[in-house]
Amino acid sequence: MADPVAETSAPSAEANHTDLVARLRAELAEKTEQIGSANARAAVYEGKERSRIAAWQPEAEFFMRDFVNDEIDNYHQGTSLKTDVAPLGVWAQEYTNKADLASQGALAAVSYVASKGIKRLREQASANASASETLASTMKQNEELAEKNSKLQRDYDDALAIMEERQKGLETLQAELSRAGLMQEKFAFSKISSREANPPPVAAMAAPPAALETVKAEASKAATSGAGKANPLECDLMTSLLARSSGGLRYTHSNTNHAWVGAPSGEQDIASVLRSASKF
Q1: Quick one: pLDDT at residue 121?
Q2: I want to staple 54 with a disulfide (CB 3.0 to 4.6 A). Which of 31, 96, 144, 264 is the partner?
Q3: pLDDT at 132
Q4: What whole-number distance in Å separates Cα of residue 245 and Cα of residue 235?
Q5: Please, are residues 223 and 232 in contact by the beta-carbon 8 Å criterion?
Q6: Angstrom distance (rounded) from CA 227 to CA 237
Q7: pTM here?
Q8: β-bridge partners, 250
Q9: How far apart are CA 70 and CA 72, in angstroms?
């Protein structure tokens, strides 16, 4: 005869097993969903982080490879430093693809900052060099302008000196003309109104002084003299004197009996007197 207790416990154990399996499956599905959500969030974060540090890669490659190799080539030749730092150049090219992204960010950030600083210092040095060249060019132009200014100042001083000499000469000429009666009006040549830039009115210049008219009249008379020449200075002096003389060619009797003032007999002519004077 079968045990009723055993028959009753068997269905109960089977039911508990079924419930346990169902519960575990539900928990597994829940955990799987949670893990999936976490992985999705992690993937989003990792993608953003990878994109962020990937933007530093060009600067990291410049600092870890280009700059370091240039420094070694220029200042550390004959050493093994280039071989020692070669892995860093490889790392700069590959660090964005590494699985452990969190451990790559710090070194990439340092490389980025260092690269930016080096480039900024180089630009400043280049700007300083350009400023030095501009300053040198400006100083040269300043020296040329100073030299031109000095020359202009010397020319100006020379012009003032010449103007003062000319003014003194004009004043002297004015005094001589006034003394000779050829100028009645006096000009102050130190004033601008008395210089050539502002000449006197045409009416005043058209009326010559009376003394000047007298001189011109005398010159006109000399031009119409018996010699028939326009310039009195071109006439023969002896002919002019004889033409205006009222005496003859003989020399009158001297009351003093002096041999040169007059001949006692009054017989000698001017030619004989000149010959006697040439022998004296």
Answers
A1: 93
A2: 96
A3: 86
A4: 15
A5: yes
A6: 10
A7: 0.42
A8: 269
A9: 5
Query: Which residues are within 8 A (CB) of 250 and not within 5 positions of it... i.e. 6 or more apart?
Result: 266, 267, 268, 269, 270
**pLDDT confidence of residue 230:** 45
Query: Cα separation of 215 and 221, whole Å?
Result: 10
Q: Tokens standing for 115?
A: 């690269």
Q: What is the mean pLDDT of the chain?
A: 75
183 touches 209 (CB < 8 A): yes
- What are the C-alpha distances in Å from 220 to residues 177, 182, 228, 240? 21, 18, 11, 15
Q: What is the largest CA-CA distance in the chain?
A: 225
CA 228/CA 239 separation, integer angstroms: 11
Amino acid at site 13: A
> pLDDT for 6-48, tens place per residue?
455 556 777 788 888 888 899 999 999 999 888 888 888 888 8
| Residue 14, CB-side half-sphere exposure with 13 Å CA sphere | 6
3-state SS track over 159-202: HHHHHHHHHHHHHHHHHHHHHCCCCCCCCCCCCHHHCCCCCCCH
**For 55-80, where are the alpha helices, taking DSSP H only?**
57-61, 68-75
For the record, the structure tokens of 187 come out as: 């000009």
Instruction: Please list the ranges in the chain whose pLDDT falls under 70.
Output: 1-11, 183-280
Amino acid (1-letter code) at residue 184: Q
81-94 vs 68-75: helix axis angle to the nearest 10? 170
- Cβ of 209: how many Cβ atoms within 10 Å? 14
Phi-psi region of 78 (alpha: psi -120 to 50; beta: other; left: phi over 0): left
Q: Residues near 153 by Cβ (< 8 Å), separated by ≥ 6? A: none
Q: Supply the pLDDT for residue 252.
A: 53
